[in-house]
Amino acid sequence: MRQIQHKSTAAPLVLSSFLSKLKAELQKAGVGAGLGLLLFSGIALVVLTGNLAVHGVQGIHPSMLAGMGSLFFAALMEEILFRGLVFSWLQRRWGLNVALVGSGVLFSLVHLLNPGSSLASLLGVLIAGAFFAVLFARYRSLGLNTGLHWGWNYTQGAIWGLPVSGWTEFTRNPLLDTSLQGHPWLTGGSFGMEASWVTLLTIGLLTIGLYRNIQTSR
After folding, report:
1. Which of 103, 142, 128, 104 is nearest to 191 (CA)?
2. Domain CAAX prenyl protease 2/Lysostaphin resistance protein A-like: where (predicted)?
3. pTM (2 decimals)?
4. If phi over 0 gives left and psi between -120 and 50 gives alpha, with beta otherwise, what is residue 192?
């Protein structure tokens, strides 16, 4: 009888704990989305000034709302796979440094077949993979990672009208009607801002900063 009572009281506690953690992760996802929007827009304003022609504002198209869900799902799946599983396994087995490099390399190789890929995009996605890995190592939040990942991609495609890692499905009806006119090494060209050397440098510095923060907090 006591065992039955114990199970009946344990179930609501487990559910309550799960809902509490889910709420916290969703809040972190919101923070991450805001950071992703600000990070991309900040880099874009610096890089694209004089290299991006803005022809007007097209308004909110239904495809922008549909893109929210599909881009969020893609970001969530990549974070679960590359950070939640691959990075975590490598870190447990061989430590932080191997996990950062290994998960970053795998992340970049997966994107190598994307349209418009190049050496610059390979390096850019490698650095991005290391950044997301060190972000996860520092805060241990798939919600924060997913939100930032989604915020960057959604801002790039649905708002600025630029390719998202080579894909243009989310740039057909963006908020801003734009066209690139600068050199690909600066703008990222047909692959998107991930292939910009300015983005590579910026994300690289952020990665180093987070890595040093982890090392000093040990």
Report:
1. 128
2. 64-154
3. 0.90
4. left
